[in-house]
Write a structure and sequence with these properties.
Helices cover 44% and strands 10% of the residues. The protein is of the alpha+beta class. Strands 3-2-8-7-6 form a five-stranded antiparallel sheet, with helices on both faces. Strands 1-9 form a two-stranded antiparallel sheet. A hairpin with a 4-residue loop joins strand 6 and strand 7. Helix 3 packs antiparallel against helix 11 and helix 5 packs across helix 9. The radius of gyration is 18 Å and the shape is globular. It binds glutamine.
């Protein structure tokens, strides 16, 4: 995964809080550490190098408390989780109507890399599948490739609260094996859905997927969305609050690939997963959850990550339609 000493030491200096809730997280981690179903993504050789045993769970509240266990400071590539945030970047840069004209908000029920566009509007269905994500990346403003990359990195910096690094070997691997994404981009260009900076946008898309994050970062990023766009650790306004609702809505309906319906049923809160093994989940006005475990189910979601989120949502009563009192109370005692 490259050599990122300064990143590691910075990450290791962040202190998590000891508490009954942290003890609960330890139990949860132990309970699921033995789950060995699923397999590490190998569609590109670089991702196959991940240790299948890595497992981290981080919870960050909107008032900045951090509870975490396991490999929460192990960097891995963000992959599709980037799509939710770049959607926010595009909204902030262009406003809702311009973005909606290029990318819809309907779930597909198809795999993330499906080559399909809406037959009537020619739009990709939503920003969480590759087609929609590439169309969103096309909307990253800037007059040169470097400007656009800097804009992207700065945007993620606001959410994580630290400097962003890209795993260049993963980005190279994405580029070398990216024929399907290239085909999707050219198809969308044919329909006037993306500009003619096709190669530049694809390169940016490969770079955004290769951004290095940790489970801790994913929890902070989730907590930033939960906190109306203000990073609860740095207090920086990461995104205009008026777009948080839009991001969370598409995460809610489309964030977990073609498992989004079942996720809604079982877990119920907006989330986004990536084939690097990460999941970010958001309990609005309460907390963000970041999980990392690289073994994936056939739909591309982290097997242990799903189990942890399901347990947490029950424990904390996070499902919006839950009518049963929570076992633990986020806002007050014992957290
Ligand atoms: N970089 C990956 C791709 O475009 C993203 C995949 C993912 O996390 N679903 O294929």
């Amino acid at each position: 995964m490259g050599d990122h000493h300064s990143f590691q030491s910075l990450a290791n200096s962040i202190q998590a809080v000891a508490s009954p809730f942290r003890a609960y997280l330890c139990d949860l981690q132990q309970q699921y550490q033995g789950v060995r179903e699923g397999k590490v993504a190998d569609y590109i050789p670089e991702l196959a190098k991940a240790d299948p045993e890595w497992f981290g769970v981080s919870v960050v509240t909107v008032d900045g408390r951090v509870y975490e266990v396991g490999d929460c400071h192990q960097p891995f590539t963000i992959q599709s989780i980037s799509k939710a945030f770049v959607y926010g970047l595009a909204l902030e840069a262009h406003g809702r109507e311009v973005v909606l004209a290029k990318v819809g908000v309907e779930p597909t029920g198809e795999a993330f890399n499906a080559i399909i566009l809406d037959e009537v509007t020619n739009r990709p269905y939503n920003p969480m599948v590759n087609a929609g994500a590439i169309a969103t990346t096309d909307l990253i403003p800037g007059s040169t490739a470097t400007d656009r990359l800097n804009h992207l990195l700065d945007f993620f910096r606001r959410f994580t609260g630290r400097q962003i690094y890209i795993d260049t070997s993963v980005a190279t691997s994405e580029r070398i094996t990216g024929s399907r994404n290239r085909a999707i981009a050219h198809l969308m260009h044919n329909f006037g859905m993306i500009s003619d900076r096709i190669d530049e946008t694809l390169e940016l898309y490969f770079q955004q997927c290769s951004i290095l994050v940790t489970a801790h970062d994913l929890a902070v990023m989730g907590a930033t969305l939960a906190n109306a766009g203000i990073n609860p650790v740095t207090r920086e306004q990461a995104i205009d609050p008026r777009y948080v609702q839009d991001i969370l809505s598409v995460m809610h309906s489309c964030g977990m690939y073609d498992y989004s319906g079942e996720w809604m049923y079982r877990v119920g809160i907006p989330a986004k997963s990536g084939v690097g093994g990460g999941i970010t989940a958001v309990a609005p006005r309460r907390l963000g959850i970041g999980t990392f475990s690289p073994r994936l189910d056939p739909k591309g979601n982290s097997v242990r990550g799903i189990k942890v989120c399901e347990a947490l949502t029950q424990e904390l009563g996070l499902h919006p339609f839950n009518m049963v009192p929570a076992t633990q109370d986020v806002g007050s005692v014992n957290f």
